[in-house]
Amino acid sequence: MRRTALLTSLLVLACAPAAEAASRMVVRGAGFGHGIGMSQYGAYGFAQKGFSHERILQHYYRGTSLSDAPSRPVRVLLQASDPFVRFRGATRGPGGRALDPRKTYRVTRSGARLRIRGVGTFSAPLRVTGARIRLLGGAINGVRNGLYRRGFEFRPGSAGGVTAVNRLPIDSYVQGVVAGEMPSAWDLAALRVQAVTARTYALATRKRGGAFDLYPDTRSQVYRGVAGETSRSNRAIKDTAGKILTYDGVPAITYYFSTSGGETENVELSFLGSEPKPWLKSVEDPYDDISPRHRWRMSFSPSRFGARLGSPGRFRSIKVLRRGNSPRIVRARVTGSRGSRILTGAQIRARLGLYDSWARFTKVSTSQVKRARSARTTTRGGKVARREIAGVFDPAPRSRSLLVERRVRGRWSFAGRVGTSRGGRYRASLAAGGIYRVRSGSVSGPAVRVR
């Protein structure tokens, strides 16, 4: 293909007024999640390499021990302060009363007590049991008319309502969690890791006192009851029955997340204000690259980027002040035309909607410089119009060189190279009009039409 443009060397000059200009904030990132504890894709990668669940757990949670879980049941909130609650499938009620599992029962509040229609009025908490009981209506976890193991506990809620809680053994709870947190088609070793991690996390983070211990959503873990079970995930739970991770004899908080990008982070550097934990330290994650979010990119207009970050005035720049043991951002300064502000990595991730706080920022601007007439003349005596683009690629690439590409028949084609200043400024002459952009590695600038 004939090359249609020839670039001049770097001219570090102020840009003339632009006929067409565009700017872009490009974010290059890695990972998906908070970065603390066990990477699920990393565990999957380890499992594919033949590692046992015990070795995988020890890799992510250093210094912990596999121990037996306490026998105390857990209580999972399903409905909060509803006007009434309906259930079906229970075989036993308050005081051991027999219930008909084929019948639908309705629970309402009667002062400080609870009434089961057709059965009686009882003091709270009111408990019903059965192998599997169906809770009619919608639950906090998004499941409607869901089936749950072992039993319910009902208590008076606010505004005259009734609160419904699933009360069950820890392993029965984990059966409703694992397949909701990790694909059940993954290797069994990875599912075993998830089973131990979920079991431990539930016991280490459950609420003390009150009407329930755990939420059925991401405030604790995603719990869907029987609807969340699969035969493979249940097998992994059976294989690890009753096992949790402890540190100095106490259940360890076993944070987990999707994708590490190749390295996890210290808890105190991701959750600022948290106390350091010996088992929640940064570790390399060599097999996490199977994740689709191992590396990712996003782009924003500068105005949108600044607005989301709460830039004081017109956005000018973002500077990372500290990174963690992994490259995740701990703190960064956002500068605008009316001052600056400090944001944490977690705040930046949330405000921009990034997958992770492992992120690097590049500002790329490209403008067509106002046309000038060169001294060179054509064979007919006319002046030649010089076409130029100029802009900033910040931070400048280490090579101090950018590719310039032209859109030809729907594809980007090489048009030449241009150098940059230390601050990333560039300026190049083009031999023909068309649509152009600059690029370095995976970071490309906005497309600009040159006339």
Explain the overall architecture:
This protein is of the alpha+beta class and 451 residues long. It has four domains: 18-26 and 366-450, Immunoglobulin-like, CATH 2.60.40; 38-68 and 174-207 and 231-288, no CATH class; 74-168, no CATH class; 292-362, no CATH class. 16% of the residues lie in helices and 40% in strands. It has nine helices and 27 strands. The strands form six sheets. Strands 4-11-10-9-5-6-7-8 form an eight-stranded antiparallel β-sheet. Strands 1, 15, 19, 20, 21 and 24 form a six-stranded antiparallel β-sheet that branches. Strands 22, 23, 25, 26 and 27 form a five-stranded antiparallel β-sheet that branches. A hairpin with a 2-residue loop joins strand 6 and strand 7 (113-116). Helix 1 (40-48) packs antiparallel against helix 5 (188-205), helix 2 crosses helix 5 and helix 5 packs across helix 6 (231-239). It is elongated and about 95 Å long. The model is unreliable at 1-19 (pLDDT under 50).
Short summary of the structure?
The protein has 451 residues and is α+β, with helices and mostly antiparallel strands. The chain is 16% helix and 40% strand. It has an eight-stranded antiparallel β-sheet with strand order 4-11-10-9-5-6-7-8.
